[in-house]
C-alpha cells in the first residue's frame, strides 16, 4: 500500500478526472463494461486457477457462480444501459400547466467498493458493473484473504478498463482503515455485520451513503412433500445450496434446516444419498467441493463442532482434514439452540437440522432471530407460502429452491436489519450508485397571482381550490361567483 | 411527556456562543445541564448549519419524570411488541390512521395555525399553503394510492432461473423514528409519519423543541387522534433525542442540519439502522437576462422571503447573475418586495419572524461581518424585540465571508455577479452539493448544461420551491444535502423493505447445476448463460463448438 499522502493524491486525481465529465458519457460506460467482458473471456483460465488456489473451487462451480453470472450481468447492463440512463417523467397536477417534471439519474462521484473473499470475482465485479454503469469513478478494495484472486484482479483490471477512473487496492485492515478515512460519495461493502458497523460509523463522518451486503443465518424451511419426485428435487437443491456453494461459505448459503420431526429421518437419509451422488464417496478426492478459506476459519468451524452436545448431534460426516483445510459435508440433528452453531452464521459445510412439531412453528422460530438475507421454503402449501411472505422478514424469500435468486437480475439483492442495508443486481446496482435528481421545468407564462403576498381571503380561497384540484371552484372564485368561506377567519392574535 | 417546558436555548455552536437568551415560553427553573458529547466527532465540526433541530438544553419540571434511556427502551419495546402482533400491517389499520390524520388537520386547523404563529409568527396563509395543505394532500394521495403501492410488483425472470416467477413485496421495516425540525414544524413532522404509517410501521415522532407550541400540540393531537399503541410523540431536546438514538430502530428519518445528521448516522451505525437524512445546503438561483424578469423576481421572492422568511432548507440561498443584469434585478426585487410586504416590512403581517434569539443573533452576525456590512444594497433593518429582520439584498460579498460559507437560513440574499452565466457552474460546484438548484432562463442549451453539470438534490427551472409539492418526484438531497428521499410513493418506499420473492416449481431442473461437474455441464452452462438457444441445443445433444 502506498502512503496516505499518495492515496490522497490518487483520489484527488480521480475526482479531477470525474469532474471532466468523461465517465458520464454513455460511450465511456459501455466501453468499460465491454472491457470487463473481455477480461472474463481472456482471463478465464487464470481465474479458474486463482479460485482453485484460494478456495479449491471446482472450475464448473466457479463458472456457474462467478464468471457465468458476471457475463450475464455484463450483457444485461450493456443491453439496458440506455434505458437505465434515460430519465423518467413524473406526473404533475393539472394546475401546473406548462410544466414538466422528470427524474434523471446522475452518478454520485467517487465510490468505494469493499469485496469479500468467498466469491472474489463475483462480489468484486458485480458492484463494479453497477458503479461503472452509473458513471462513477471507483476504488475497489479486494479481500486479502483470497490473495491469488486479489493479485490477479489487481494486475488485470487496469489493462481492461480506464485506469484513471478505476483503481484497485489489495491489502488488509490497515489499507481498509486508510480508505475509510477518506471522503467518498458512496461506500459499498460486502462482509460481516461487525465490520459493517465500522464502515457505517466511518461513513457517518462524511455523510456518505452506504450499501451493506451482510449475511445471517439463512434457513431452509422444509415442509412434508408428498411426491417423491418433489422430495428428491428439494433435497438436491438443498445439498447444492449448502455444500455446493463454496462449501457453505456464501452469505446466501443455507445455514440450517427447519423440518417436522416425523420427516427428519427420511430427509437425512435422502441427503446422504444425494451427497454421495454429487460429491462421491470421498469428497476430498472429487474436487467438486471447495475447501475452507484459511486456517483461522477452519479452526472456527472446528470449534463449532467441539461442544460435546453439538458433537453428539452429528449424524453424518464431521471429519476434518486440517492439512488440506477440508471439512466433509456434515449433517447435525437438533444441536442445542444456544450453542454457537445455532447462534452464529456458520459459513461452512455444517448443516444443522432443527426439528419442529408443526412446520408452521417455523414462523415463530424465524421471528425470534435476526432477519436473515434469505429464507428458503420448500413447500406446496399455499397458505404456508403466504404466511412465510407476510409474517416473516428477510432480504428475500425463495420458494422451492436456494441460491438461484443471486442470478435473477430483475430482483433486488440485499438484506434488511442485521443482514444489510440497500440492494443491488441489475437495474438496482445502477440505482445504488446513482442519485435520482428531481427536475421540474416551468415556463414564465402561467403565473397565478394568488401565490404571492400580501395575503387576503380571496387568495386563500383560490389556493385551497388549487390544492384540492377543485378547478371548477377555482374558476368560480376567480369570476367572483363563489364567496370565500374564510372571509371572517383570521386567527385571534396580534403582533 | 405532557408538561414539557422549554426555556433556555443553549446552543452548542461556536457561532452563537454566549447568546443564551431565555425563551419566553412557559419558563420554569432549571436543573442539571449536561452537554451532549459525541467523542468520535471532531470539535471543528461545531459550526451551525441551519435547517435544523438546533441542539439546545431543556430543563425539566421536577414533577415530570425524565424521558431517559430506560423510558426510551421500554417505549421501543412496547411498540415492537405491538408491531410484532401484526396490527399495523393491515391495509385497514393504515387507512384508518391516515384518515384520522386527515380528520385531525381538518378539525384542528385553527389550533395548528395558532401554534405556528406562536412559534414563528407564521402568517396564517403561509401556514395553510406550506404546512396544512401539504399534510392534507399527502394524506389524500396516500389514501388514494395506498392499495396500489401495497401490491407486490411482478418482475420478469430470465432463463437462468427458468421456470420461475418473481415479485417484489413491500414490507414494513418495524419500529421507526422520525426526528423533525422547527421551520415547518407541522408538515415536516407529519409528512414522514404519513409515509411510515402508509408502509405499516410503528412510529415515534420527536418534534423540535425550538418550536415548542407546535411540538406540544403535536403530542396532544397525536395522542387524541391516532392509535397510541403504535404511534407516539416524544417531546424534548438533546437529552431525550440522545436517549431515543441509543435505541435500536428499524429506520430513522431525520430532518435538520448536516452536523446533527452525522450524529444521527453514527448512532444508527451501532444498530445497522438505515437512515434518511433530509439536510439543507446553500441552494443557488442562477438568473439569466433573456427572461420575464418580473415573473422571475416574484418567484424568487416566493422562494425566499414569502416562505418562512427564508428559513427553508430549499429556499433560495443566494443568486448568481451577470454583471449587466444585477442592477436591473436588484431594482426589480426592491419594487416587488415593496408590493408584497409594504414600505416597512418589519411591520408586515405577511412575513414570518426569526425562530429564536440565537438564530436572530447568528443572522445579525453574518450581516455585520466587516467585509459584508458595506455590501448591503437594500433592507436589513432589524427589530430584536420582535425577532424580525427586513428582507436584505447584498451585492458581491466576498467568497470567504460567513454568509457565503454557511447556509443562510434567513431573509438575507447575497447576489454574486459573473462575466458569463456559465461561470456560475464553477461557483456552485466549488461548494457542497445543495438540496435544490434553481435556474431562470429561456436558453435551452443553458438548461441542458445546468442539468448535466450541476449536482443537487432536485432542480427547478424557472421557478422556486414548487417541486416539493410534486408527489411524483423524490424529495431528498445528495452529498452534504442528505441521503434518501421521500414524498408520495417515495415516502412509502423509504419506510418499506423491498423483499425479493422468487417462486420455483420442483420441475424444470437442469442437471448442470449439480455436481459432479463434467465438461458437458460446463458447456451447457455457458450456453444457458449466453442465452443462445442454438448453443443450448447443441450442448444438450452433446455437440459443441468448443
The total count of strands of chain B amounts to: 18
CATH homolog superfamily of the largest domain in chain A: Aldehyde Dehydrogenase, Chain A, domain 1
Helix content of chain B: 25-40%
**Proportion of beta-strand residues of chain A:** 15-25%
Q: Radius of gyration of chain A over alpha carbons?
A: 28 Å
Structural class, from helix and strand content of chain A?
alpha/beta
Question: Which term fits the overall shape of chain B?
Answer: globular
Number of strands of chain A: 18
Mean pLDDT of chain A, nearest integer?
91
Query: Can you list the strand order of the major beta sheet of chain B?
Result: 10-13-14-9-8-15-16
Number of domains of chain A: 3
Largest sheet of chain B: 7 strands, mixed
Total separate domains of chain B: 3
- Look at the structure and name the CATH superfamily of the largest domain in chain B: Aldehyde Dehydrogenase, Chain A, domain 1
Fraction of residues in β-strands of chain B: 15-25%
Question: What distance separates the N and C termini of chain A?
Answer: 66 Å
Write a structural description:
The complex is a heterodimer of chains A (495) and B (546). With 495 residues, chain A is of the alpha/beta class. Chain A has 3 domains: 4-214 and 425-437, Aldehyde Dehydrogenase, Chain A, domain 1; 219-414, Aldehyde Dehydrogenase, Chain A, domain 2 (3-Layer(aba) Sandwich), CATH 3.40.309.10; 449-495, no CATH class. Helix content of chain A is 44%, strand content 17%. Chain A has 19 helices and 18 strands. A 7-stranded mixed β-sheet of chain A has the order 10-13-14-9-8-15-16, with helices on both faces. A 6-stranded mixed β-sheet of chain A has the order 5-4-3-6-7-17, with helices on both faces. In chain A, 52% of the residues are buried. Chain B is of the alpha/beta class and 546 residues long. Chain B folds into 3 domains: 70-279, Aldehyde Dehydrogenase, Chain A, domain 1 (3-Layer(aba) Sandwich); 284-480, 3-Layer(aba) Sandwich (Aldehyde Dehydrogenase, Chain A, domain 2), CATH 3.40.309; 510-541, no CATH class. Helices cover 38% and strands 15% of the residues of chain B. Chain B is built from 18 helices and 18 strands. In chain B, strands 10-13-14-9-8-15-16 form a 7-stranded mixed β-sheet, sandwiched between helices. A 6-stranded mixed β-sheet of chain B has the order 5-4-3-6-7-17, with helices on both faces. Chain B has a 3-stranded antiparallel β-sheet with strand order 1-2-18. In chain B, strand 11 and strand 12 (388-389) form a beta hairpin. Chain B starts with 68 loop residues before the first helix and ends in a 6-residue tail after the last helix. At the A-B interface, helix 4, strand 2, helix 8, helix 9 and helix 16 of A face helix 3, helix 4, strand 2, helix 8 and helix 9 of B.
Amino acid at each position: 500500500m502506498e502512503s496516505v499522502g499518495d492515496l490522497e493524491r490518487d483520489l484527488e486525481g480521480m475526482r479531477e478526472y470525474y469532474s471532466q465529465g468523461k465517465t458520464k458519457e454513455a460511450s465511456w460506460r459501455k466501453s468499460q463494461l465491454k472491457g470487463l467482458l473481455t477480461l472474463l473471456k481472456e482471463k478465464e483460465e487464470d481465474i479458474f486457477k486463482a479460485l482453485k488456489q484460494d478456495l479449491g473451487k471446482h472450475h464448473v462451480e466457479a463458472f456457474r457462480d462467478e464468471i457465468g453470472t458476471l457475463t450475464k450481468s455484463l450483457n444485461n447492463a450493456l443491453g439496458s444501459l440506455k434505458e437505465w440512463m434515460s430519465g423518467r417523467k413524473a406526473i404533475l397536477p393539472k394546475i401546473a400547466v406548462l410544466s414538466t417534471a422528470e427524474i434523471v439519474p446522475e452518478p454520485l462521484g467517487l465510490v468505494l467498493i469493499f469485496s469479500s473473499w468467498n466469491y472474489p470475482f463475483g462480489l468484486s465485479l458485480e458492484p463494479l458493473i453497477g458503479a461503472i454503469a452509473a458513471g462513477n469513478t471507483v476504488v475497489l478494495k479486494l479481500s486479502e484473504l483470497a490473495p491469488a484472486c486479489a493479485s490477479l484482479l489487481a494486475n488485470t483490471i487496469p489493462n481492461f478498463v480506464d485506469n484513471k477512473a478505476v483503481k484497485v487496492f489489495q491489502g488488509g485492515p490497515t489499507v481498509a482503515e486508510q480508505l475509510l478515512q477518506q471522503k467518498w460519495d458512496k461506500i459499498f461493502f460486502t462482509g460481516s455485520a461487525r465490520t459493517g458497523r465500522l464502515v457505517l460509523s466511518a461513513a457517518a463522518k462524511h455523510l456518505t451513503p452506504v450499501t451493506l451486503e451482510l449475511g445471517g443465518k439463512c434457513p431452509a424451511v422444509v415442509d412434508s412433500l408428498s411426491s417423491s419426485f418433489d422430495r428428491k428435487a428439494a433435497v438436491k437443491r438443498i445439498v447444492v445450496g449448502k455444500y455446493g456453494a463454496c462449501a457453505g461459505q456464501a452469505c446466501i448459503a443455507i445455514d440450517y434446516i427447519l423440518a417436522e420431526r416425523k420427516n427428519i429421518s427420511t430427509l437425512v437419509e435422502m441427503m446422504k444419498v444425494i451427497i454421495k451422488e454429487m460429491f462421491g464417496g470421498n469428497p476430498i478426492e472429487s474436487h467438486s467441493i471447495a475447501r475452507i478459506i484459511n486456517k483461522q476459519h477452519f479452526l472456527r468451524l472446528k470449534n463449532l463442532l467441539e461442544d460435546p452436545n453439538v458433537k453428539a448431534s452429528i449424524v453424518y460426516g464431521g471429519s476434518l482434514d486440517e492439512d488440506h483445510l477440508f471439512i466433509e459435508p456434515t449433517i447435525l440433528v437438533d444441536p442445542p439452540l444456544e450453542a454457537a452453531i445455532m447462534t452464529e452464521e456458520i459459513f461452512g459445510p455444517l448443516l444443522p437440522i432443527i426439528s419442529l412439531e408443526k412446520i408452521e412453528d417455523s414462523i415463530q422460530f424465524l421471528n425470534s432471530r435476526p432477519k436473515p438475507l434469505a429464507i428458503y421454503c420448500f413447500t406446496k402449501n399455499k397458505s404456508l407460502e403466504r404466511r412465510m411472505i407476510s409474517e416473516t422478514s428477510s432480504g428475500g424469500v425463495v420458494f422451492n429452491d436456494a441460491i438461484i435468486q443471486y442470478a435473477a437480475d430483475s430482483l433486488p439483492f440485499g438484506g434488511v436489519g442485521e443482514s444489510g442495508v440497500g440492494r443491488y443486481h441489475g437495474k438496482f446496482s445502477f440505482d445504488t450508485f446513482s442519485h435520482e435528481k428531481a427536475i421540474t421545468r416551468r415556463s414564465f407564462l402561467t403565473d397565478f397571482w394568488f401565490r404571492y403576498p400580501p395575503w387576503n381571503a380571496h387568495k386563500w380561497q383560490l389556493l385551497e381550490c388549487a390544492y384540492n384540484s377543485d378547478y371548477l371552484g377555482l374558476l368560480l372564485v376567480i369570476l367572483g361567483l363563489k364567496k370565500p368561506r374564510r372571509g371572517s377567519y383570521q386567527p385571534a392574535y396580534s403582533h | 411527556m405532557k408538561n414539557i417546558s422549554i426555556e433556555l436555548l443553549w446552543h452548542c455552536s461556536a457561532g452563537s456562543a454566549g447568546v443564551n437568551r431565555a425563551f419566553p415560553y412557559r419558563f420554569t427553573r432549571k436543573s442539571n445541564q449536561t452537554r451532549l458529547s459525541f467523542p468520535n466527532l471532531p470539535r471543528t465540526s461545531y459550526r451551525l448549519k441551519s435547517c435544523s433541530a438546533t441542539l439546545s438544553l431543556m430543563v425539566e419540571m421536577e414533577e415530570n419524570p425524565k424521558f431517559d434511556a430506560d423510558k426510551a427502551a421500554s417505549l421501543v419495546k412496547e411498540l415492537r411488541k405491538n408491531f410484532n402482533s401484526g396490527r399495523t400491517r393491515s391495509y385497514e389499520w393504515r387507512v384508518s390512521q391516515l384518515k384520522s390524520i386527515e380528520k385531525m388537520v381538518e378539525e384542528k386547523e385553527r389550533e395548528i395555525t395558532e401554534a405556528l404563529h406562536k412559534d414563528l409568527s407564521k402568517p396564517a396563509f403561509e401556514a395553510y399553503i406550506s404546512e396544512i395543505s401539504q399534510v392534507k394532500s399527502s394524506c389524500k394521495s396516500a389514501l388514494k394510492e395506498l392499495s396500489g403501492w401495497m401490491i407486490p410488483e411482478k418482475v420478469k425472470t430470465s432463463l437462468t432461473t427458468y421456470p420461475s416467477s418473481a415479485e417484489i413485496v413491500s414490507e414494513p421495516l418495524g419500529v421507526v423514528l422520525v426526528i423533525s425540525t422547527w421551520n415547518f414544524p407541522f408538515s415536516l413532522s407529519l409528512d414522514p409519519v404519513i409515509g411510515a404509517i402508509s408502509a405499516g410501521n410503528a412510529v415515534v415522532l420527536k418534534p423540535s423543541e425550538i418550536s415548542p407550541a407546535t411540538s406540544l400540540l403535536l403530542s396532544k393531537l397525536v395522542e387524541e387522534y391516532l392509535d397510541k399503541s403504535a404511534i407516539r410523540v416524544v417531546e424534548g431536546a438533546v437529552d431525550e433525542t440522545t436517549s431515543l438514538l441509543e435505541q435500536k430502530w428499524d429506520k430513522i428519518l431525520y430532518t435538520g442540519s448536516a452536523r446533527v445528521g452525522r450524529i444521527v448516522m453514527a448512532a444508527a451505525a451501532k444498530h445497522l439502522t438505515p437512515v434518511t437524512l433530509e439536510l439543507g445546503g446553500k441552494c443557488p438561483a442562477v438568473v439569466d437576462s433573456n427572461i420575464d424578469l418580473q415573473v422571475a423576481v416574484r418567484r424568487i421572492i416566493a422562494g425566499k422571503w414569502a416562505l418562512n422568511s427564508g428559513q427553508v432548507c430549499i429556499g433560495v440561498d443566494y443568486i448568481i447573475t451577470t454583471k449587466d443584469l444585477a442592477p436591473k434585478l436588484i431594482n426589480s426585487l426592491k419594487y416587488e418586495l415593496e408590493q408584497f410586504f409594504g414600505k416597512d416590512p418589519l411591520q408586515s403581517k405577511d412575513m414570518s419572524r426569526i425562530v429564536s434569539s440565537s438564530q436572530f443573533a447568528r443572522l445579525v452576525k453574518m450581516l455585520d461581518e466587516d467585509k459584508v456590512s458595506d455590501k448591503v444594497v437594500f433592507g436589513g433593518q432589524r427589530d430584536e424585540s420582535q425577532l424580525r429582520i427586513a428582507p436584505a439584498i447584498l451585492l458581491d460579498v466576498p467568497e470567504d465571508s460567513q454568509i457565503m460559507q454557511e447556509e443562510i437560513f434567513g431573509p438575507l440574499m447575497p447576489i454574486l455577479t459573473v462575466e458569463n452565466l456559465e461561470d456560475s457552474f464553477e461557483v456552485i460546484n466549488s461548494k457542497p452539493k445543495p438540496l435544490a438548484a434553481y435556474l431562470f432562463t429561456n436558453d435551452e442549451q443553458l438548461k441542458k448544461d445546468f442539468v448535466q453539470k450541476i449536482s443537487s438534490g432536485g432542480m427547478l427551472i424557472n421557478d422556486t420551491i414548487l417541486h416539493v409539492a410534486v408527489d411524483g418526484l423524490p424529495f431528498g438531497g445528495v452529498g452534504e444535502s442528505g441521503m434518501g428521499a421521500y414524498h408520495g410513493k417515495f415516502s412509502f418506499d423509504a419506510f418499506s423493505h423491498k423483499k425479493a420473492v422468487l417462486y420455483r416449481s420442483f420441475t424444470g431442473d437442469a442437471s448442470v447445476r449439480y455436481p459432479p461437474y463434467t465438461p458437458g455441464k460446463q458447456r451447457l452452462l455457458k450456453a444457458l448463460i449466453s442465452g443462445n438457444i442454438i448453443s443450448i441445443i447443441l450442448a444438450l445433444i452433446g455437440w459443441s463448438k468448443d
